[in-house]
């Protein structure tokens, strides 16, 4: 199966291991991964800040890029996936672009949804001994409704025990530009999240949105907590 891989800005600039493991995982599962080099930012930072008009050139550029073929588009980030799936609404005042946006949005899936539903795979043969807390990011779980797919894949990782925590579904405080505009509130939110994580003393914190993981990892590092933070793609490529 041929698939397009949308790397995301954070994956490209800050978390190359996550992007690499996402591609390796898809290839391991039998996909022919296509990387369209003209892809760029989805416009999410501007959209989240209220600058939808300013984000439209980025939206249109990405739409045009992914019109090069009609294969599924897979992203390792719920936030970017949701942003692209929202393009038709943002471009509603331009009917031609809205229609093109819908065609692209309909092909867009987050990594875990693609593996579980499109490929029909629930066990990728990964092994990672230890105890872990899974952080369900807001964009993935609340906006996209992707809740069970990551958990299904993680439950089938050999040796991995998932631990529940208090307020597991509460936001980590990142929220895109919220963490910049409301830094004090954001800091308190991630502090509370880490407190709940450390209540169960896990070996790993796992998530499917790199931005949230960077936020949580930063707090863990400042508190000198010996917990490894991993994107789900990295976990699923572990043996």
Automatic annotation (TrEMBL):
The record's section on InterPro entries has: Cys_rich_dom (IPR004017)
Cysteine-rich domain location is: 3-85, 133-216
Q: Spell out the GO cellular component terms annotated for this protein, sorted alphabetically and separated by semicolons.
A: cytosol
Molecular function via GO: oxidoreductase activity
**PANTHER family xrefs:** LACTATE UTILIZATION PROTEIN A, UNCHARACTERIZED PROTEIN YKGE
Q: What name appears for this protein in its UniProt entry? A: (Fe-S)-binding protein
Q: What is the lineage of its organism?
A: Bacteria, Pseudomonadati, Pseudomonadota, Gammaproteobacteria, Enterobacterales
